[in-house]
Amino acid sequence: MAFKLNCFISQSHKLPYLAFPSIGSPRSPKFYMASTLKSGSKEVQNLKKPFMPHQQVHVQVTHSVPAHKIEIFKSLEDWVGQNILVHLNPVEKCWQPQDFLPDPASDGFEEQVKELRERAKEIPDDCLVVLVGDMITEEALPTYQTMLNTLDGVRDETGASLTPWAIWTREWTAEENRHGDLLNKYLYLSGRVDMRQIEKTIQYLIGSGMDPQMENSPYHGFIYTSFQERATFISHGNTARLAKEHGDIKLAQICGTIASDEKRHETAYTKTVEKLFEIDPDETVMAFADMMRKKISMPAHLMYDGHDDNLFDHFSAVAQRLGVYTAKDYADILEFLVGRWKVDKLTGLSAEGQKAQDYVCRLPPRIRRLEERAQVRAKEAATIPFSWIFDRKVKL
Ligand SMILES: [Fe+2]
Ligand SMILES: [Fe+2]
Description:
6% strand, globular, disordered N terminus, two-stranded antiparallel sheet, EC 1.14.19.-, 14 helices, Ribonucleotide Reductase, subunit A, metal-binding, binds fe (ii) ion, 396 residues, mainly alpha, two-stranded antiparallel ribbon
């Protein structure tokens, strides 16, 4: 199957979420959003600003996996039914956001909200920024379900398809939906954040989509999701630790519970890729190397709040400084996946496959060296306002 090359102007920011510093991203012409609001309003002025100032031009490849390889995914359906769907929790056994929130139907509701707000007062602004960024990332879930359904051979062809791949995607989405819902309600009740600005950011983000360069390839797609689930497991886990340090045990419990969902999802996706390595090591290792060469861009890399043209970079910098998700984590995840899939032990690869194997196995120490050099070069951190917290300033 011939694959298509589309010239594409991406709105990518120059840094993947807390990935190691990217070098020399090309900048291209700006493009502007048309205003749909009445003139004279404050919002119109904002919309006249460039929507995304840092854009990369790259060639967008679509449908890169040939038809006979896609057949492999159809042949795996029974295996997915028996080995992957077991990592979903039945709805009746799942936690729900309401389990962690004041009950609006109870007499004690107001008192419970008061207690929640008292606890939330102790959370510093930089932690709030990270929490909001994580919540916004979760809230862009429609984009992630769309992404999974771009993947050839595994997409949900009808919206209610009974293939195990499609069931997985829908039920995974349904589980994920609780994450943004819970964090959103918590932050709303806390009274510490500018909900309207946050809601605008979510709307912008869902409208922008994402550009992880997966080429409609399920090989690329499941490598990406393996990486991402582990990344979210790490960042929610670290946010839980911070919440605990600042005395908000309930919030720590919320973030910890979400982290454990992410861990379960990571198990399912890494198991899927493990299977791909077993049946098609060449294609899988080349997809792994390809995704790593492109760098794993984080799901919310196109975020924008109508004010800050570098919002994602700024959010990432705060998360890096607080140790919620760092360049070291990026290298650690890669190293973990190389070990999990025993990439260094693969044998019988083609010459190209061996090159890819060599590349991914040598990459973690290279990333660490780059990170160390970047740290040495790091200048005095700036302090900037975040609209999410009423323009209070936070150190990057
Ligand atoms: Fe999530
Ligand atoms: Fe997840």
